[in-house]
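Subject: Re: docking follow-up (pyridoxal-5'-phosphate)

Dear J.,

Thanks for your patience while I sorted out the input files. As discussed at Tuesday's group meeting, I've set up the holo structure prediction with pyridoxal-5'-phosphate included as the bound ligand rather than trying to dock it afterwards. The sequence and the ligand SMILES I used are pasted below, so you can double-check that they match what you have on your end before we go further.
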Amino acid sequence: MSASTSPTALPTFADVQAASERLQGVAHRTPVLRSTTLNKLTGAEFFFKCENLQRMGAFKFRGGYNALAQFSAEQAKNGALAFSSGNHAQAIALSARILGMPAVIVMPQDAPAAKLVATRGYGAEVVTFDRFTEDREAISTRIAQERGMTLVPPYNHPDVIAGQGTAALELLQDVPDLDYLFTPLGGGGLLSGTLLSAKAMAPGCKVYGVEPEAGNDAQQSLRKGEIVKIATPKTLADGAQTQALGELTFAIIRRDVTDILTASDAQLVETMRFYAERMKMVVEPTGALSLAAARHGGLDLKGKRVGILISGGNVDLASYGQLLAS
Ligand SMILES: *Cc1c(COP(=O)(O)O)cnc(C)c1O
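The structure tokens for the complex came back this morning:
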């Protein structure tokens, strides 16, 4: 069974560096792009770390692979299990295929067909369940026990956090003197990993997490000093529809973050349109959170060097087209 649910020591920057070694030649070193248009418009200098161009279309490959690559021989033989209908599912499926181990992904029956197909396409076995009558955690626990598989959670795991931190590590290697860094925020794996890298590599850099306005549980948690759980928020940002931070991610975020901002769905659509029109890039709604808040979050960025982490680019083309045209 999984060791993933037991409390663990917080990962450190050394863990991010080790993850970076592991990902060498496996993950893409994604480009850091610039936009003269945006720089002119804002008087700031923007640097975009493009994880929408990562393998499987999102940074989640980094954390998934870093976790699976450290399985024991016994764990690797029985394989990895995840419950997710989003990018984490594809990250685990692809990582398992690369490492030659079995993977089971537990998904709701009514998950978008494209996601089921993509996950199966990476060679994973997909087990579906009825969201209205069955409990996915119970199903996952049963499969983990029956088959000896190791459950890999999407964010609250030290190896996942360390892997996610490698995107910011690369960005800060390429652009060491950032004044600001904005990153999307769901369960906090990406933000906490980013914070480990930023605190070590650019201690003066202000790091902001950005979550959807409708689901500001992390902002509430930071203000309150304890993890606040909310109902599943209704937002276009489906990668950040989490109800609560994890214990590990909250501990790091609370210790190191500058602040948490939010962005509205309308701002996300406007930002996706900017990426498409000006930078010729497909960015998913969750991936647009960081720039949306950098532009509309009320901070004065004039004359500053600003890092923007674009977290992913996986969209359903039909709804993407509709959103941008509307
Ligand atoms: C998962 C995900 C996020 C949120 O990451 P957390 O580690 O859960 O905070 C942001 N953007 C995309 C594209 C994602 O898939």
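A couple of observations from a first look. Strands lie at 32-33, 45-50, 80-83, 103-108, 125-129, 150-151, 180-184, 206-212, 259-263, 305-310. The first strand starts at residue 32 and ends at 33.

Let me know if you'd like me to rerun anything.

Best regards,
T.
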